[in-house]
Backbone:
């Protein structure tokens, strides 16, 4: 008596072949990626060329009133002072007391490039002697600064500058404060340091 024919499930075979191809491509991708990562790691360990400028400290520290150039952007700090609290310029709100101490930085930013850039206080950080980084307090800036003086998503066309005030709420014990300013590029790595004299 002849043996009955076995049914093959072609759909199952096709699915298994597709899964097999995906696994093979994934393994090849992982091997290629790990080689790239190890090449970059060797370059960083061997010659130091693989480090970005954000990992290195900028060579020169500028002083207040000096023009500091980061890429196609010029930053000039005109003044910096400590304040325990801020007052609403319109007198509508009660004074706002700092959690630590406010650092109020008056500055000018200028676009020296050929295309418009967006200036924002997120490109600014205060660094202290311990290497701690303090970001700008945008909430306080919006509520307690004159609107024309805040630095929030401000479009700067070529050869246009903006005078602004940026506020930081930092630890009272922080010393030797420097402003680190970027080049207004999301993936940019040009930065400058400006000594605030505080």
Residues:
């Amino acid at each position: 008596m002849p043996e009955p024919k076995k049914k093959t499930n072609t759909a199952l075979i096709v699915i298994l072949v597709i899964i097999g191809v995906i696994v093979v491509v994934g393994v090849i991708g992982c091997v290629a990626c790990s080689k790239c990562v190890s090449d970059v790691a060797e370059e960083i360990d061997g010659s130091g060329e693989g480090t970005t400028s954000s990992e290195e400290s900028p060579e020169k520290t500028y002083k207040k009133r000096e023009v500091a150039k980061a890429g196609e952007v010029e930053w000039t700090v005109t003044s910096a002072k400590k304040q325990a609290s801020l007052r609403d310029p319109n007198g509508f709100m009660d004074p706002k007391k700092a959690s630590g101490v406010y650092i109020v930085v008056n500055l000018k930013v200028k676009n020296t490039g050929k295309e418009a850039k967006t200036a924002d206080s997120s490109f600014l950080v205060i660094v202290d002697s311990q290497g701690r980084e303090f970001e700008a307090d945008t909430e306080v800036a919006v509520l307690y600064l004159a609107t024309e003086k805040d630095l929030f998503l401000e479009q700067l066309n070529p050869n246009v500058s903006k005078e602004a005030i940026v506020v930081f709420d930092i630890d009272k014990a922080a010393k030797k404060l420097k402003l680190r300013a970027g080049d207004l590029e999301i993936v940019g790595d040009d930065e400058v340091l400006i000594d605030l004299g505080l």
User: Anything to note?
Assistant: The chain has two helices and eleven strands. The chain has a mean pLDDT of 80.
